[in-house]
Amino acid sequence: MVTCTASWPGLVDAAEDAMRRVLPWPSVTRLPRAGCVDVKSFTKHWVCLLPRHGPGKKHERRIALEPWQQGIVDIHPWEFVRGLIHSDGCRVTNWTTRIVGGERKRYEYPRYFFTNVSDDIRRLYTDTLDKLGVAWTYCARYGTPYNISVARRASVALLDLHVGPKH
Hints:
Elements: E1 2-5, H1 9-22, E2 28-33, E3 36-41, H2 46-49, H3 67-75, H4 77-88, E4 89-100, E5 103-115, H5 119-132, E6 137-141, E7 144-150, H6 153-162
Antiparallel strand pairs: 1-3, 2-3, 4-5, 5-7, 6-7
Helix pairs in contact: 3-4, 4-5
């Protein structure tokens, strides 16, 4: 089961489509709930494809890609980054002020954030960004680097080109 916010119906469609493409034989259903939609597929074979799924909180257990999974990410790195951003990230318009000609002016710029408590998941994300040449930095929350920021113009342009908006 994948629980999606109802605010992004295109992502709900994408989750259902992905389930049908990966394992076409079990049925895939949607269960609308308050503010979200559960996309469900009933088969015992999901644990074969998602071996890191298991009991406990994901940030308290090791999350690593199996070699065959890493091979897929190596072939399709932008799809991996897109999935991570669409699940745990966002694109925002950030702003700051600068003194220009003695006058304080507001300066706006686009920025991507990815937030996850799991060190392993953040590392999978940043390792892939490194391979793609995307510059990133940590933004600490309460002294802990849960947030990854992409704000350099060229890197934001790459993400805009390959990730696209949530819908």
